[in-house]
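Here's what a typical entry looks like (Transcriptional regulator, TetR family):
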Amino acid sequence: MFLEQGYKAVSMDTIASKAGISKMTIYKYFPSKEELFLKIISMMMEKYTAIIESEMTKFSNTIDKIDYVLSFSLEASQDYSFAFYKDIMDNPYIRNRVLEEKTKYSNMFFEKIIREGIEKGEIRKCDIASMTEILSVIIEALTHNYFDKINNRDELEVKAAILYDFLKYGLFGGNEVK
């Protein structure tokens, strides 16, 4: 329900009714609607992480791995309503927790991909931790600065595609950083 209708439009009464349980049962496990919502997002991220890790083994070069991770993220994001994203960004507590979780998983993937790319000679030598942090900061900054200006799913997808294009092709070439 959250994915289709967003956070704000779904009440605990509706969740309890749909699940066939009492609200008290939900509150026994989740102290608030926010915590239930965050748990669902965390479970989704864990599921997607397992899928991405499994699929990345099928790709031998760095650009294909980056392309896969970014394409998967774009495709997966289409499963959720614009209200879902808007509600996340409008609630500072939820936004910060979701971005922390997203950053953790993004860092894990970027660090692994960058390390393997350097080992294969497909990415120039660089400080892996710093490069991973820079990528995370770029994503987080764009998320914070542009989301309020986005009014619909099409605009969201265009911004994401531009970001992903930069991330894929802005990493390659050039001289080593000393």
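The mean pLDDT is 84.

More examples are in the samples folder.
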